[in-house]
Design goal:
By secondary structure, the protein is of the alpha/beta class. It has a single domain, classed as 3-Layer(aba) Sandwich (Rossmann fold), CATH 3.40.50. It has 8 helices and 6 strands. It has a 6-stranded parallel sheet with strand order 3-2-1-4-5-6, with helices on both faces. The mean pLDDT is 96.
């Protein structure tokens, strides 16, 4: 398939990166769908690792909210979380520079909370000219209404709503991709 014939709203491994936002220990007991969200984040991190694509991780005020949860931190290898107090991860010191250096143009977002840090990050990335994809099965909020309205707002602003599996297979493009079997196994 000629790559140029693909729709602009599909993720492309040539310019994609993953941003994992604030998946921290303190949220575990406060966020109802926490375990499912973490599982989605883990699948995405592993997918991006197999495909050797950039991954960045932020932590919102870790002194108060704890570090990135161990099940995610354990697989992040050489990706140290960047600490922030601003809600937007794009406002986190180092993130804009890392994105620029990577030459990524499409940023896939996962993490918490949908209506605060995810929402503000998505809007700041859109304002900076990036294509932004939000993995709806890998984001979460404490209250369903906040998640629902934030998803609507982000989509209306130009973000592309996706799922972990949809994103992974868009990045793979072809069953002949050398990483197909490893990535496919994550979603079985």
């Amino acid at each position: 398939m000629n790559h140029t014939s693909r729709h602009a709203r599909l993720l492309d491994a040539a310019d994609a990166a993953l941003l994992v936002i604030d998946v921290q220990e303190k949220f575990r007991s406060a966020v109802p769908g926490f375990d499912g969200m973490v599982a989605g984040c883990i699948k995405l991190v592993k997918t991006f690792q197999y495909l050797e694509l950039p991954i960045w991780v932020t932590e919102q005020y870790p002194k108060g909210l704890g570090e990135t949860v161990p099940e995610l931190k354990d697989i992040l290898d050489a990706t140290p979380p960047l600490e922030k107090t601003v809600f937007s991860s794009y406002g986190c010191k180092g993130i804009p520079e890392l994105i620029t250096e990577s030459r990524a143009r499409s940023i896939l977002i996962c993490g918490i909370e949908t209506h605060v840090c995810v929402n503000q990050t998505v809007h700041d990335l859109l304002a900076a000219g990036y294509r932004v994809h939000v993995a709806v099965d890998a984001i979460e909020s404490r209250h369903a209404i906040n998640r629902e309205i934030a998803l609507k707002k982000m989509e209306q602003s130009g973000a592309v709503l996706t799922t972990t599996e949809m994103a992974a297979f868009e990045l793979l493009v072809d069953a002949r991709n050398k990483n197909f079997k490893e990535v496919q196994a994550l979603y079985k």
